[in-house]
Structures are given as C-alpha cells and as structure tokens.
# Entry
Amino acid sequence: MQEPVDEIRTEPYGDAIRRRVCPVCLDERVDGECARRCLIMRHLPAVVDAIRAVDSPRMDEYIAAVESAVCRSCGQQAPDGTCVTRDRAECTLATYLFLVVDAVEEVKDARAATRTPGTLVVPFPG
Ligand code: SF4
# Structure
C-alpha cells in the first residue's frame, strides 16, 4: 500500500506531466489559462495516487484505476459512468492519459532507484 501523495510531493509528478503533455496538448495557451482549466492538474493528487497503485503493462488497468479514483468525484461523469467531456475529447486527463502514466512511472522509477543501494542515480531533471 502506497502512502497518498500530498500537494508538495506531487510537484515532481506535475513537472514530469507538464514536460510530456503540454508540448502536444491542443489546449496549451501561452497565458497559462489552460493550467487553471486542466483536469489533469485539477485532480493531480488523485491521478498520481491512482497511477502509482497500478503496476501493469496493460493500459486498461490504468484507465480503470483513474476512472474509479478520479472520474467518480470529477462532477462531469454521469451516473451511468459515461462522460460527455471525455466523449468529445475535451478532457485532458482522458485524452493524454498514456502520457500521464509514462510521466508518473518515470518519477516513481527514479524515486525507487534512489532508494536502492548500489544503484547508479541519474539526477532527475526539473
Ligand atoms: S473523463 Fe470525464 S469524469 Fe473523468 S476526469 Fe475527464 S471530465 Fe472528469
């Protein structure tokens, strides 16, 4: 069982996500307004917790974990589990989830390496 991440400890995850998602995100705006609307950043602690709890080569397991932990409390999801925002590809979390998973796994692996004696530690950028 992993400890839940708080706001401060999510910062490296947020940085890694921004490095991977923002350059390809169709919503990216130079005025920073997108960061205030971004559903990834709005739900960041729950997103990180959900992804860290999964260790699988299967993307559907990450999708199920995120939908269970995040979508239920998002306010956009209908009682039957459907989400118009997701269906319209207007949810950054759903649209870029594969990149978010890569980013979270990258930070998780880097942190695990720093705790393993004898492991060569490459400084984590950012
Ligand atoms: S898929 Fe829908 S319910 Fe889930 S985070 Fe995105 S907008 Fe919210």
Summary: The chain has a mean pLDDT of 86.
